[in-house]
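sorry for the late reply, my laptop died twice this morning and i had to redo everyting from scratch. anyway the thing you sent over, i finally got around to it. pasting the sequence first so we're on the same page, its 330 residues, then the predicted structure underneath. double check i copied it right bc i was rushing
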Amino acid sequence: MVSSLLVLGRALRPSAPYHGWRIAALIVLAITGIAWLFWRGAAGYVGSCAWFLLLFLPAIGLRKMTELATQGNYKSARKLGAALQILHPSPELRDQIRLFHQLESQGSHRAAAGPVPIEQETARRARGSQLRNAPAVLVLILLNAVVFLFEISVGDSNDPEVLHRIGALEPYAVVVRGEYWRLFTALFLHGGFAHLGFNLFALYVLGPPLERSIGTMRFVLCYLISGLASGAGVVGLTLIGLVHPVQLVGASGCIMGIVGAWAGFLMRHRHAPHAKQRLGNVVMIVAIQVAFDLSTPQVSMSAHLCGLIAGLFLGLFLAPSAVDGGLDAA
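ok and here's the structure:
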């Protein structure tokens, strides 16, 4: 609810160039409000699912739009772009829609003259699948899935006893028993299929463009170090009494590390085209995540924030000084 109100207020400003965020915020407010009336305990999850769909489905649609343009189907690409503009309002998308309209109207001339440089660049970026050029993301998705299959083979993935036996993070076990390996194993365990699905889909959407921008090895370092810092941060905060001892599992700290690394990367290259706009998108993701954490007591905000902060510094430190061909799409 909080994130929806923030976005709605931003969209209602007179200087706001688009009304898409207003529509998205109103939809989420309505869905979350209904959930609050009838399923109060699950309202946070319902609202976060709505935001999840409204934020990440456009990312998939943008890739489909690029594929259509590469195939020369500019009419379909333009229509899809116009629909996506409602949920993904940006000057870049508006310019792409205009370009598709021009190419559609000049189709016969284009066929005789050959592809224009912009189309060649579009085709270059569209080659291959989303994961084919991101081997680390593919391996991490498969590894998380395999570990989850192991979880359900030994018991209920939501059973704290089962999770304890196979490596869940517990501050007491780490500090008193010296079981530091739990900081690592907990990153690949998940409390149920929905938990796994959310994290893997976020990794699928946010991971490949970051891996292509900073390199595979740097990406792996960001992912793992952010996750370890997330768990270590929770243990430290528990020791000083700022958070209550809880059992933690999941790649959420790693995912928030990716978000933080994106922020650091974009800050490092803030003068690149569209960097400030994409940084604004990252800030919006963080705001939505914080609002979800506040409304859902079952999740650990401290773990998410520790992963985010670690990823931010890693993004600043590991970002290459120069990026060939500009920034990849965030």
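The chain has two domains: 2-126, 135-318.
thats about all i looked at so far, will dig more tmrw
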